[in-house]
Amino acid sequence: VVCLVAYHIFFMLFVWSYWKTIFTLPMNPSKEFHLSYSDKESLEREPRGESQQEVLRRAAKDLPIYTRTMSGAIRYCDRCHLVKPDRCHHCSVCDKCILKMDHHCPWVNNCVGFSNYKFFLLFLAYSLLYCLFIAATDLQYFIKFWTNGLPDTQAKFHIMFLFFAAAMFSVSLSSLFGYHCWLVSKNKSTLEVFRAPIFRHRTDKNGFSLGFSKNLRQVFGDEKKYWLLPVFSSLGDGCSFPTCLVNQDPEQASTPGGLNSSSKNENHLFPAKPLRDSQSHLLTDTPSWSETTAKAEKGKVGMSNPALTMENET
């Protein structure tokens, strides 16, 4: 009876998470990241050069973006006509920009991103548990099959096939689930593993990592009672993310605390532009930024922003 109840629980959670992964629409950038009609006309009218740089600079001046292209340009999508938020990428299959895009999964026929990444993780977890449960309960009959302890019927071949299928899927799912658990612990996406995010001052593969606990909360949320359920509980809106590497922007006149321009040459551990409320508390709820780290950062030589050039990026 206990095995039967556990079987139905795993199966229901598996189906529920799989359903949510498939039918949860990926989130797209909000309207504030889209260029206005006048900016679009200016961008199309002006030749590639400083004039286009100025249009994109003006459009992104008040947006919470910190990453750049390899040449230092503002990340712009010429198909969606928008300034890309951090960790946003254009999916060639869906033909639209996806917030915190991880990859396009053909098995679920959907993009895995900010809106359904938690569901995808739970789908992998419950699929793995389901396969392990099937393999464990079928093991005794599989052993009897090889010791000729089963009746000589066609059912014994079904037992052998079921065990091999469950075991092989368990191996593949365990590797995939383990890989995505590592991504969550490092606060990375699959795309960011292959191409590290480029910030204003340098490239850093761990630029969005805030520590294991905070990285976990970004995906699963603050309410632990919802962690194992396929309900959306991720923090933030997918457009802005806290990072430990963003320095004061030399182009900004002041910091969030109201400091004047005399502090431009100092490096700061907190973003100059405000993050969303649901994301910024990850930076302030615990004393993760030590005074020693702050002094070490101040000792580094600051680098100004490179000249921004127009560059399309997927």
TrEMBL record:
Belongs to the DHHC palmitoyltransferase family. The DHHC domain is required for palmitoyltransferase activity. It is an enzyme of class 2 (transferase). It holds the Pfam family DHHC. Keywords: Acyltransferase, Membrane, Transferase, Transmembrane, Transmembrane helix. GO terms for molecular function: protein-cysteine S-palmitoyltransferase activity. Its EC number is 2.3.1.225. PANTHER family: PALMITOYLTRANSFERASE ZDHHC16. Residues 252-264, 280-293 have a biased composition (Polar residues). Residues 252-314 are annotated as: Disordered. It is found in: Membrane. It is a multi-pass membrane protein. PROSITE patterns: DHHC (PS50216). The chain crosses the membrane at residues 6-25, 119-137, 157-179. Residues 74-193 form the Palmitoyltransferase DHHC domain. This is Palmitoyltransferase.
